[in-house]
Each structure stands twice: as C-alpha cells, then as structure tokens.
Amino acid sequence: MSTFSDDHKFFLKKKRKEKVLIKLTQISIIIIFLLIWELLANYEIINTFLYSSPSRVLDTLINLYNDNNLLGHIWITIYETILSFSIASILGIIIASLLWWNPFISKVMDPYLTVINSLPKVALGPLIIIWVGASTNSIIVMALMISLIISIINIYNGFTTTNESFIKLLKTFKANKSQIFMKVILPSNKLTIINALKINISMSLIGVIMGELLVSKMGLGYLIMYGSQVFNINLVITSVVILGVVSYLMYYIISIIEKKLIK
Amino acid sequence: MEKSILKIEHLKKFYHDKNGEIEAIKDIDLDIYDKEFLSIVGPSGCGKSSLLSILSSLEKATSGNIKFKHNNIRIGYMLQNDSLFPWRTILDNCLIGLEITHELNDDNKNKVIQLLNTYGLGDFIYKYPNSLSGGMRQRVALIRTLATDPDILLLDEPFSALDYQTRLALSDDVYQIIKNEGKTVIMVTHDLAEAISLSDRIVVLTKRPAEIKNIYTIHLSNKSTPINNRKAKEFSTYYDMIWRDLDVHIQ
Fold first, then answer.
1. What structural domains and CATH numbers belong to chain B?
2. Which residues of B31-56 are buried (b: 16+ CB within 10 A; e: fewer)?
3. What is the pLDDT of residues B86-103, one digit of tens each?
4. What is the DSSP string of B138-174?
5. With bands split at pLDDT 50, 70 and 90, how would you rate the model's confidence at A246?
6. Sheet-wide strand order for B184-188
7. Backbone angles phi, psi at B42, to 5 degrees
8. Residues 41-70 of chain B whose Cβ lies under 8 A from any Cβ of chain A
9. Is the pLDDT of residue A138 over 60?
10. A179 in contact with B, Cβ within 8 Å
11. How much is the pLDDT for A5?
12. What is the reported pTM?
C-alpha cells in the first residue's frame, strides 16, 4: 500500500474526491427538493390538501407507526413480494430448464409465451379476483403473472445462447444431456440467472402492489388505495415514500447477494 | 509399413436441410498408421471438418465403415478454438474430460498435473483461463485432450486462431508433446507449410464432394522440429506439388 508513487497517490486522491462529491450532490438534491416543497407548502403557494408537505408526511409516518401498525403493512408487502419472488425464481429456473431440455416443447410454447408476456397483466386482475378469490392468493397470482413469464424467457434465452463450442467440447468426450446441463449450461449462465433474479424482485414488487391495489386488507398497496379513496393525500404520499425505500432496500440486498455469488 | 490403427472404408456423408441435400464426402478410403502424424488439406468447405466429426462420432456417416484396430481405441478431439471454461481453473478445465467419463481419481489427476508441469503450465494450474495468452490457452486445450489418454488425436486447425509467431512456436511445442506422448494424429489444416513441416503424410482432398486427390509421404532431409523442417530443401517441392493439387483460383 505504502509503495505507491506520488503520481498514483494523486490519482487515488482524485478518485476519492470525485466519489465524495457525487455523494454530497446526491444528498443536496434531496435536501433542496424537500426544502422547496416545505417552503412552498408553508407559504401556501401549493395546496397542501393536494400536494401535502414533508412535515405532514413525517407526521403521517409517525402516526402510522404509533397507531396504525405501519410495520405490519410493510411486512405484509415484503412477505408477499419475497413469496412470489421465490416461487417465480424456482419455477422460472425449472421451466426454463425443461424448455431447454425439450426443444419440441419450447417450439410449441413459443407463441404462447410471447402472447402471455406481451399481455398487460393488470387486465387479468378482475378475472384473478373472481377465480382465486379476494385474498392474499390473488395478490401472489398477480405477482407471479408479472414476474414468472419474464423470468422463464430471460433464463431460457440465456440457456439457448450458451457458447456452442463449450457444448461441442463436452460432446467430444461423449457427455450426455444432463452432464451438458450441469457442467456447461448452468455454470455459464450464472450471470444470466442472477440478472433474471434482479429483474424478478422488482417485477414481484410491482405485481404485489398491483394486486394490493385491486384487493387487500393490508400492505403498502392497500394504504395507497385506502388513502386515495378517503382523499388522504398525506397517506398516499407517505406510503409511496415507504415503498420507494422498501424497493431500494430489496434491490440492495439482491446486489449484495450478487456480489457474494460472483466472487 | 506400420500396422494401421484405423481404416476408413467407402465413407460417404450427406447433409440435409430444407433447401435440399449436400454431398459433403463422396467416397473416402484411408488407412491411418499407428503413431503417424497425418494431415488433411483441401479447399475450404471441402468436408475436412466433417471427416473429423465423423471419426470422433459427433456426426454419423451416411454410409461406409470406420474400423479401429481394436475396440478400446480412444479418440481425443481438439477443437479449433480452445473453448476453455472461464469459470474453471486451468487444472479443472483439463479434468473436464475425466469428469465426463467418470474416470477422475487421484492417479489421473496427478497425471494431468504432471502434464501441466512438464509443458510449462505449472505456474498456472490454479489460475483462470483469462490470465493466459492465446498460445498457452491452446496448449491447455491440448493437455485437456490428452488427459483422457486418447490413442488418436484429431486436431481441427489447432493453430488457426493464433498470430503467426505464436503459431510457429506452438506448432513446435505441440509436435514435441505429441511425439513424447506417442500419439497418432490426424490434423486438418489449410496451411500447407504447417502441414508439410509437421506431418509424416499429407492427404489432399478435392473440393466438395470430397474425394482423395493425392497422398504424399513426406521425406525431409535432416528432419527435426517443425520450424527447422521448413528449411529442408524438399520443402518447397512438396509445397508446389500440393499447391497444384489444390488448384486454387479465386472465383
């Protein structure tokens, strides 16, 4: 460490300085934004009934936490997201593997997957509620609709675009299909699968919120829906802010797992 | 003449696709002798690689026979590109064949480590392929092929992806390794100089559908390493003869 030349030390210092500057600017932007919002609300330039204000959001947050089981709502949303993320990931890998294993099935399924993937899943919401019932199950099904198909497609595409010469190499040693799968397809698609999981966690959260907006008695989606129905904009904005934090945290956790796996 | 290790009789190969069928190999009869270095040259797209694929049973011949001296002759196929798995260390890359054939044990593993040490890759055993140069990667690919202890090595343009200098140096290395290990080699190449400098015999194929046009037994005075062989006085005579056989003209 200590044997760097002055030139290199200068380079490192510059890099560190740049990093600090980026962080400072990021923090300043949010502070300035909140400040302007608060001031505009205070001087009644904007209507707080429609646009709320940072201090009102904070009050709502404290109120939710003290009297209205905020952690319960957050937990329900996280729980539903993790559940549908897990199901979608496991099923996604299994189904993608089956499609790779059997090209006949994959050719048959191709148009169906394309149609289901391009269909706006929210259109299925009413049907799901009627068929599955107004319960947590509906929310999970909704989230799966959104996350599963895209997981299958992404992972399957990774599998089929595996370097041909890797496969040919194993065939020169007379490898069978399961050896090819275990020794080439899976390890060479580690990154593809991790990326699919990253997309999957965001998709699951979108699906869960969509499901909660349609049918629920708890969760952040429920708070947003309830808030808008009783025209409590403070509640809606507070819930959206919490949702932003929750989704960022989930993405952050996946990135940490990603870094561990890639090593 | 030495006893043949492999006999190819009346080999034919057709490829089918929706636009029709293509006759790739018309009729090939060829004996391959034990421990010889045989090269196959021919115009591009003439079916040289098909021949190797059939010999390694990656593809099936349409008709004809391939007879081995005995049933447990093993074939090793070294592909055109090294195909080293970036997620495996050099050692683990070399062990992949043994894993597939369920022959991985400490004995075999030590033999592979020995091979890597002998051929100048000892320092890289636990490194990953991306830290190796093109020439070294190709040497690893050769050792990976040798790991399953094949009797016959099929080389599909093994040096074509390398720059000229590396190519020359590596062909010397590979020649040494193969002679030390006592293998029979069938090499496909389009580089005539490479073929003449390495081979005991050269088979010239016609353009598609492939037939054997000529077989040359290469006798060079002061035969030594491939690089030195290029200086032999017969070298250019062979070159000219094979060049004429190939009848190359740009269409």
1. 1-73+197-251 (3.40.50.300)
2. bbbeebbbbbbbbeebbbbbbbbbbb
3. 999 999 999 999 999 999
4. HHHHHHHHHTT--SEEEEESTTTTS-HHHHHHHHHHH
5. very high
6. B63-68, B4-17, B20-33, B210-217, B201-205, B37-41, B184-188, B152-156, B75-78
7. 175, 165
8. 56-58
9. yes
10. yes
11. 84
12. 0.85
Report which of B161, B128, B159, B124 is spatially closest to residue B142, judged by C-alpha positions: B159
Q: Encode pLDDT of B73-83 as tens digits.
A: 899 999 988 99
Site of tokens 């599998």: A159
Other beta carbons within 10 angstroms of residue A54's beta carbon come to 17
Nearest to A151 by CA among A125, A113, A105: A113
Give CA separation, B203 vs A64, B82, B237, in Å. Answer: 85, 25, 16
Model ipTM value: 0.88
Is residue A143 a contact partner of residue A215, using CB atoms and an 8 Å limit?
no
For residue B251, pLDDT beyond 60: no
Q: Would residue A223 be called left, alpha or beta, if left means φ above 0 and alpha means ψ between -120 and 50 degrees?
A: alpha
Dihedral sign computed on CA atoms, order B136, B139, B143, B145: positive
Is the per-residue pLDDT at B2 higher than 70? no
Distance in Å, alpha carbon of B85 to nearest chain A alpha carbon: 7
* Mean pLDDT, rounded, for A126-152: 91
Note whether B100 contacts A190, CB cutoff 8 Å: no
Instruction: Name which of A249, A219, A224, A251 is nearest A80 in CA terms.
Output: A219
